[in-house]
Amino acid sequence: MRTRENRHSIYYEEYFRTYSIQFILSKMMLNNIQPGLEKYKNTLGSFKMQYEEKIKSSDSDMSALRFLIHSIENIEKKFIIFEIYKNMFLSTYVAFETYLFRCFKFILQKYPTILSEKQFKLKDLFDSDKKTADSDLLLDRVIDKELHDLFYKSFKQILAYVKAKYSINHEISSDLIKRITKTRLVRNQFLHSGGMVNHIFLAKYGDHDYKVGDEIKISKEKFLELIDPFEIFIQEFDNVLVKKYPELQMRECQK
Questions:
Q1: Domain range list for the chain
Q2: pTM above 0.85, yes or no
Q3: What count of other Cβ atoms lies within 10 Å of the Cβ of residue 226?
Q4: pLDDT tens-digit profile of 13-64?
């Protein structure tokens, strides 16, 4: 359990607030699956009776409707549960990366000299039809480019980079980095392959419970397994972060 005696960054609070809201909303949906599913299927039954002749016709315009009705009739509660936990997992992952992004952006805006050794091509900083002499806007673009490139690195590389460049002297264990790396792989698989397992995923994930062609299903247990490293990481990382950059503490940021 996380403790609240220590002072944390404002983005720490935002992460746990977002996660709590997602948890409450998901719980409400889970509690209403069965009555909602039964009501929907009853409504579908009435609809079928009303349009029975049209649905039976060979008209190609009705093929999508027939497929939809067949799909709804065969929906099972467990598949809805998987979908709810999948969406909760993806939302929690976004909240985690948002925490990191906002922390890093705050640091770079406060201490832009960190970027003094960076070199950027002008075409990477400006749209072809928009140029500006505004130094603040230019700095924002430099920071956005820096963070865009950073988040395309592996999680291990991200932590090594911010330790060296931002002087965040964390001691995140290799085991925790591996767990978060696996969570990122699952998220990327949903994003790029709809959650279908392929050879590349298997080679990187190393889980013998999956085989090529499987669909990754997020049960309650899998959800907790995937997001548990986030809470551990944020607690450890945030403590080091606010010691180095006390301006990030909640009370300081709100002044």
A1: 10-31+76-248
A2: no
A3: 21
A4: 899 998 888 888 887 877 777 676 677 667 666 666 666 666 565 555 556 6
